[in-house]
Amino acid sequence: MEDLAGIERFIAHWRETCGCELANTQSFINGLCTLLGVEPPAGSRADDAHNDYVFKRRVFQDNGDGTQSFGRIDCYKRNCFILEAKQGSEADRAAADKDEDDLDIFGQTAAALSVLEKVSVTARARIGRQQLAK
């Protein structure tokens, strides 16, 4: 890992960027990988079986009604992590400067929690059905 001055430069650089998540995510992650001294994600291939560590990994969600939704994970590393980037606003920056930890990134925090709650309820229901079927 770089020295403390390098870390401070990285933070200062990204602190000044705007809420341009789509434009900034890959550059931020590549810079973070460099800072940490780890390999950045590789280029994506047509066959997802080979996309072990990539940006914009394709995913499919079963909607429970026989249909599927298509989406992408901002950064994916098989058996390690998924990263879904959210870049904050000026209001978030002001809240962070006051050491407030309840930032509402683009108003998506509540929506994300709602999705997580739905996923949790769906998962519990499926587990319950599987246990009843045994």
Structure description:
There is one protein chain. It contains 4 helices and 3 strands, in the order ααβββαα. It is an alpha+beta fold and 134 residues long. Strand 2 and strand 3 (81-83) form a beta hairpin. The longest helix has 25 residues, at 109-133. It is flat, with a radius of gyration of 19 Å. The model is unreliable at 105-119 (pLDDT under 50).
Q: Would you kindly provide a brief summary of this structure?
A:
The chain is of the alpha+beta class.
Write the layout of secondary structure elements.
Layout: H1 4-15, H2 21-36, E1 53-62, E2 68-77, E3 81-83, H3 90-97, H4 109-133
Antiparallel strand pairs: 1-2, 2-3
Helix pairs in contact: 1-2
**Biggest β-sheet strands, sense, barrel:** 3 strands, antiparallel
Distance between the termini: 51 Å
Low-pLDDT residue spans: 105-119
Class by alpha and beta content: alpha+beta
> How many strands appear in the DSSP assignment?
3
**What proportion of the residues form beta strands (DSSP E)?**
15-25%
Overall radius of gyration: 19 Å
Shape: flat
How do the helices and strands follow one another from N- to C-terminus? HHEEEHH
Can you count the helices?
4
Strand order in space, largest sheet: 1-2-3
Helix content: 40-55%
What is the average per-residue confidence, as pLDDT, rounded to a whole number? 75
